[in-house]
Amino acid sequence: KARQRLREFDIGDRFSRLPLPRAAVLLPLMVRGGRLHLLLTVRSLQLRRSPGEVCFPGGKREDTDTDDIDTALREAKEEVGLQPEKVEVICRLMPGIDKMNNLVTPVVGFIEDTFQVTPNPDEVSEVFVVPLEYFVKPLNYKTFSYKTSSGYSTRIHCFIYHDQEHRKSFKIWGLTAHFAVFLALVIFGERPTFEVDYDLDNLFSSSENYFTNLYASIRERKKSNL
């Protein structure tokens, strides 16, 4: 059922011609105890950008990458030792734009729950999994308004997830939380316990409008700077 829902939201190469630097992340789904879970990583404290923050495996596109799927799979292999052939890629969801104005495409794929993580310590300090439903029915959640550098106002989701296995809490927010929430909305098709920036009765078209407005605000700022 999840595969079918996700394929309905596949954007393919729809935004591949936009003149922004490209990046991609892998949203690795697994079934554990009969429930869908999402694998996340914690960035190494040695990294210059966003050290210690929770994110998905991923990064900037390299010249050798043929597309966003290639980028996401290559980065997942480098960061957590996930072999590309062990990922059942389902779709590419609506992209986002990060703080550096990179166009970030989320690639969704299923992995086995028996996958043995081997984190690259230069990039990843920890790996953990969260039940996907936590991103529509969280126990610890807050939101705040954020105005991008281009002046576009948006809503930032922030989840605190207490992981029993690690016996610690992880803060999941920003673009990572944005992608996780959208993924959960697509798969479960139900209203979350908090407000979102979408018309849930027209999720695909309203998510496209959200992205288009965000991209337009960045283009306007570039014009004004010129």
UniProtKB/TrEMBL annotation:
Reactions catalysed, semicolon-separated, are: hexanoyl-CoA + H2O = hexanoyl-4'-phosphopantetheine + adenosine 3',5'-bisphosphate + 2 H(+); succinyl-CoA + H2O = succinyl-4'-phosphopantetheine + adenosine 3',5'-bisphosphate + 2 H(+); acetyl-CoA + H2O = S-acetyl-4'-phosphopantetheine + adenosine 3',5'-bisphosphate + 2 H(+); tetradecanoyl-CoA + H2O = tetradecanoyl-4'-phosphopantetheine + adenosine 3',5'-bisphosphate + 2 H(+)
The coenzyme or cofactor needed here is:
Mn(2+); Mg(2+)
CDD domains (alphabetical):
NUDIX_CoAse_Nudt7
Q: Where are the transmembrane segments?
A: 172-189
Keywords from UniProt, A to Z, are: Hydrolase, Magnesium, Manganese, Membrane, Metal-binding, Peroxisome, RNA-binding, Transmembrane, Transmembrane helix
Subunit info?
Monomer.
Name the chain's protein: Peroxisomal coenzyme A diphosphatase NUDT7
- The record lists the organism as Quiscalus mexicanus (Great-tailed grackle)
Gene name linked to the record: Nudt7
